[in-house]
Specification:
The chain has 236 residues and is mainly beta. 8% of the residues lie in helices and 26% in strands. β5 and β6 form a beta hairpin.
Length: 236
């Protein structure tokens, strides 16, 4: 932001020419270069993948899921090609495209993808707030929360780039003793501050055959492969 500075006028005894020079110096300094404007707010639907073979389902924010206890406000970190400097402001939900789908070849691992559709870099908490539950349940307090990878630095996403998180719903591959009635994954992509209230939670349907037992989730990363590796460190 440009700041207008004025120097005090010279005493009346100074020559007119000198006073003219002093007045010339009263003009505004050079302005700082403006940050690139963010793209117009988008109201595109948030879509989930269709691991069960159907078309992607359109979802909308509904029930708030409790925050998990991982990220905290701080400097932003970079994470591969999608990461950036610590200068990214908190992301605006209107400039994000969010999806969730089963990872190819690993149906119990779900990939949460967040794309920055704005005109400049922005930052997210180190990982999203996520829980799993029954979409028809009135009591959300019993929703299942994943074990989390360690990390608190905010994650910067450059304009046009994506951030990925992987949640492994059944790391042990168990076929017995899994949670019953879980058919939805609830995602709040930035859980750190007030810039993204609970009304911005996105709900994605899970297929009927999904197995959930002691889920684990990693940090935001610049690629799916890196996100898978991060999820593997959760709880360790």
């Amino acid at each position: 932001m440009s700041v207008l500075r004025r120097r005090p006028l010279l005493a009346s005894v100074v020559l007119v020419a000198g006073a003219g020079l002093a007045l010339t110096a009263c003009g505004p300094d050079n302005t700082d270069s403006a940050a690139p404007a963010a793209s117009a707010p988008a109201s595109a639907p948030v879509t989930a993948g269709a691991p069960a073979g159907g078309a992607p389902a359109t979802t909308s924010p509904s029930r708030p899921a409790p925050h998990t206890t991982s990220g905290q406000a701080g400097q932003a970190g970079s994470g591969g090609s999608g990461g950036g400097s610590a200068e990214g402001r908190p992301c605006d939900i209107r400039n994000l495209s969010i999806s969730a789908s089963a990872r190819s070849g690993a149906p119990n691992q779900w990939v949460i993808e967040v794309r920055n559709t704005g005109g400049g870099a922005c930052s997210l908490s180190s990982l999203p707030a996520v829980d799993l539950g029954d979409s028809a349940a009135q009591d959300r307090s019993k929703n299942i929360k994943p074990v989390l990878a360690s990390g608190t630095a905010r994650y910067t996403v450059q304009a046009g780039q994506k951030a990925y998180v992987v949640i492994d719903l059944d790391p042990s591959g168990a076929t017995a003793g899994t949670a019953q009635g879980v058919n939805e994954i609830n995602v709040l992509v930035d859980q750190d501050g007030t810039n993204m209230p609970l009304a911005n939670i996105r709900n994605f349907p899970l297929p009927g055959e999904v197995r959930v037992l002691n889920p684990r989730m990693g940090l935001y990363r610049a690629s799916v492969a890196e996100a898978v590796a991060s999820a593997a460190t959760a709880g360790k």
